[in-house]
Structures are given as structure tokens and as C-alpha cells.
Design goal:
- By secondary structure, the chain is mostly helical.
- It is 66% helix and 2% strand.
- It is globular.
- The N and C termini lie far apart (51 Å).
Length: 215
């Protein structure tokens, strides 16, 4: 088996494990079997995600394979400008999240036993135009880089993972927020903004403020 095939298997295994550990089924199974682990689950999940992705990134960069394309001339400015805007977009939307909740620190300190996320429904300005702005911005970052064979493998699998992952994530969001999220999903596209589908500020505020279903 050649290096690219092994690299592809590595990325597939990483994305499969990441999705499995993020699922409610696995979280509930852990809570039933090892309840003392639950407060540290999110913290451990994030730490494991970082630790496992580092060798894959190192392998991708150290075994590039043939060059496929490079952004040159004016296109380099376009590609780099789009990447910078994507990073700014990620930083901008971070203001709408509880960093301690996202990292898992709040759950650990509060000894939280519930496996479901406890934060409100996040609807930043970018969420009014696309349901998964981080995924959309991530795709911009991935595809505005120079591409070699190894990066193409990683980029293609990451794209597939973000598409499938957004669908899996929405299954959880429907559990958390019920009809509020159904309405939001009907109004706003998933990954690619569409001029005729977006959420006005008043509706976004109403959906954001509503009670979480089941709370």
C-alpha cells in the first residue's frame, strides 16, 4: 500500500473516531458505564482530537507527493485574501460562544453530569446566512492553499467529513432545540450561502432567546 493510501486511511480513521466520540450514543454509553468520566468528557475529547491530528498533519506536510497546483500572480492575492477573511470570520464568531463551555472547562469545574450541551442556541451574524459558518470558513481555508497530492487527499476527506459531520451535528441540534432548530434549518442553507435564503435579525433574536426543548 502506497503512502497516499495509508494517509487516506489515517484521515478516515481520525474522522470516524471523532464523529463517534461526538455522538450522543457514545456519550450516553460512557455516562452509563463510567459516570465519573462525564465532567471531563468534553475536555478529554478536545485534547484527544488535537493529539491525534498532529501526526496526520505532520505526515501530510512531510510527504507531499507531486504538486498539483499553486496560486500565482493575482490569484495568490485572491486566495490569501479569502483565507485571511475566513480566519477573521472564525475569530468574529468566537465572541458568541462560551470558551469554557467549548473547551470543556466549565463542565469539569461544575462536575456536570449531563452529556447534552448546555449552552443557548448560537446564531451569530454569520449564522443568519449559513448554518455552519465554521465549516464553511474551514472549507475556504482548505481549498485556498497550494495543493499537492497529499494535501488533496486530506482536503477531499476533510470536505467529505464536514458535509457528513454537519448532518450528524444537526441530528443532535434537533434533539437539543427541537422546533426552533427545524425552523432555522428551513430558513438558512447549510454550508454554501444562498442569496434568497437567510434569517433576519428579529427572527434570529427570537429563536436565540427561546427556551431549550426539554429544559
Amino acid at each position: 500500500m502506497n503512502d497516499l493510501a495509508l494517509l487516506a486511511l489515517g484521515w478516515i480513521a481520525y474522522f470516524a473516531l471523532h464523529s463517534a466520540l461526538a455522538s450522543l450514543a457514545v456519550k450516553h454509553a460512557v455516562a452509563a458505564r463510567w459516570p465519573r468520566v462525564v465532567p471531563a468528557y468534553r475536555l478529554g475529547f478536545n485534547a484527544l482530537a488535537v493529539l491525534l491530528i498532529l501526526p496526520l498533519l505532520a505526515w501530510t506536510l512531510s510527504h507531499p507527493g507531486p504538486d498539483l497546483w499553486r496560486w500565482t500572480g493575482p490569484w495568490r492575492w485572491v486566495a490569501d485574501g479569502a483565507a485571511v477573511l475566513a480566519l477573521v470570520g472564525v475569530a468574529w464568531t468566537l465572541r458568541d460562544y462560551d470558551g469554557r463551555e467549548f473547551l470543556g472547562l466549565r463542565q469539569w469545574r461544575a462536575r456536570e453530569q449531563r452529556v447534552e450541551d448546555q449552552e443557548r442556541l448560537h446564531l451569530s451574524i454569520l449564522h443568519r446566512f449559513v448554518r455552519h459558518p465554521w465549516y464553511s470558513l474551514g472549507l475556504v481555508l482548505v481549498w485556498t492553499r497550494d495543493m499537492d497530492a497529499a494535501r488533496l487527499v486530506a482536503a477531499s476527506l476533510a470536505t467529505g467529513y464536514l458535509v457528513v459531520g454537519s448532518w450528524l451535528e444537526e441530528r443532535k441540534l434537533l434533539v437539543y432545540y427541537g422546533d426552533r432548530y427545524r425552523l432555522y434549518r428551513e430558513r438558512v442553507p447549510g454550508l454554501i450561502p444562498l442569496p434568497w435564503r437567510w434569517l433576519d435579525a428579529e427572527t434570529a433574536a427570537r429563536l436565540r432567546a427561546g427556551p431549550t426543548e426539554g429544559s
